[in-house]
Design goal:
9 helices; mainly alpha; YP_001051499.1 fold like; globular
């Protein structure tokens, strides 16, 4: 199973949780996506939009930490990265909302499903809005947002530089997890290495959410 996020500070897990949560209507608490973020994400590939949404889910997972009391979020995150980087792999199945209730699990569930929603809406060229919404969740949960905002600024710049949107290929090239780590080099050779290294370490049999040969061809 994939390890903790390499780009989210470990100290995030020790922050106190003071956020409010409304399982019936969390959107009223989370607010609208940042317009600048939407505009920037509209300029990157579908894969880069999905990667950004996964990154935001990683911030949520790290923020909630051991309070999640389950490894399912990391299984989903691993499956999302595998799916995003390899078109032979199907998107993970949706969560069962009834199994993700409460102030801890419900925000994690929403973060994970926002990744799927980013993928689903990319078919119509609207993935940027969902990907931008993904950041609303860690932004709401975190007491100290300074590190998150610094990460957001750096990562959006990296995605724009390395994964610009091409109208003849909106899906784009695979985006490795390391693309979201501003400390890691992102040369073409490094990107190929990161992708290959991820799959060399992957044990699909240990993650039931990773399904080969079932890609939905209705979406790139």
């Amino acid at each position: 199973m994939i390890g903790p996020s390499p780009f989210v500070p470990a100290a995030v897990a020790s922050q106190p949780l003071h956020y409010d949560w409304d399982s019936w209507d969390p959107y009223s608490l989370l607010g609208s996506p940042d317009e600048e973020t939407v505009g920037l994400l509209e300029q990157v590939s579908d894969r880069a939009q999905i990667a950004y949404a996964i990154g935001c889910a990683e911030w949520v997972a790290q923020c909630l930490g051991e309070r999640l009391e389950t490894d399912r979020p990391l299984l989903y995150i691993e499956a999302f990265w595998a799916f995003e980087m390899d078109q032979r792999i199907a998107s993970p199945a949706e969560t069962v909302e009834a199994e993700w209730q409460g102030r801890i699990l419900a925000p994690m569930d929403l973060a994970l499903m926002t990744v799927l929603n980013t993928y689903y809406t990319s078919a119509d060229g609207n993935g940027a809005l969902e990907a931008a919404f993904a950041e609303c969740i860690p932004r709401h949960l975190l007491d100290d947002r300074q590190a998150f905002f610094a990460w957001r600024k750096a990562v959006l710049a990296r995605l724009l530089a390395h994964y610009p949107r091409q109208e003849d290929d909106p899906w784009g090239a695979p985006v490795p997890r390391e693309a979201l780590d501003p400390a890691r080099p992102l040369t073409p050779e490094a990107q190929e290495h990161y992708v290959a290294d991820f799959f060399s370490r992957l044990s699909p049999g240990a993650n039931p959410l990773i399904r080969y040969g079932e890609h939905d061809n209705s979406v790139p």
